[in-house]
Specification:
The chain is an alpha/beta fold and 153 residues long. It has 6 helices and 5 strands. The chain has a 5-stranded mixed beta sheet with strand order 2-3-1-4-5. A hairpin with a 2-residue loop joins strand 4 and strand 5. About 3% of the residues have low confidence.
């Protein structure tokens, strides 16, 4: 089984000529729109109080979109997974609820279907690389993810 290493990071921190790997802009404004949230539900979330329920609603809408992506953009995803290391980047602030982390789960499942194992190495921050086990973000808490991922099975 081939391995693809994955980092996440804020685009302001991860330069596009990053020596760690290929930076993949997954923003709705400038990046691969098929991996970005739609503008309408992104702004709906940003303009909300960003409560637990707001996060769950955003996650559900984003995962609905990704179901379409993983059905109709297989060739683009296969090309992306040809890289040895990729860095999923957007403009969300470090340590905040963000789609670059949410994308890891369905991307992992898609890669496994292609006999590729994703190895998530952490978030590239201004202070260095923050390993997944020490990231303080709601999307890394299993009970939080379980609420959305469990409903989707």
């Amino acid at each position: 089984m081939r391995v693809v290493n994955v980092y996440t990071g804020q685009l302001y921190v991860t330069s596009f000529d990053n020596p760690l790997g290929k930076v993949v802009d997954i923003t709705v404004k400038t990046g691969l729109r098929y991996l970005a949230p739609n503008w309408d539900f992104l702004m709906e979330y940003k303009n909300s109080k960003q409560t637990h329920e707001d996060m769950l609603t955003y996650m559900d809408k984003y995962y609905d979109k990704l179901e379409h992506t993983f059905t109709y953009f297989k060739q683009q995803l296969d090309i992306l997974l040809q890289n040895e290391t990729i860095i999923l980047g957007c403009y969300c602030h470090e340590g905040k609820f963000c789609h670059r982390h949410l994308l890891l789960y369905p991307l992992r499942d898609y890669a496994l279907s292609k006999n590729i194992r994703l190895n998530y190495l952490g978030e590239i921050s201004r202070k260095g690389i923050v390993p997944p086990s020490s990231q303080d973000s709601p999307m890394f808490h299993s009970e939080f993810l379980g609420e959305v991922l469990g409903k989707r099975k």
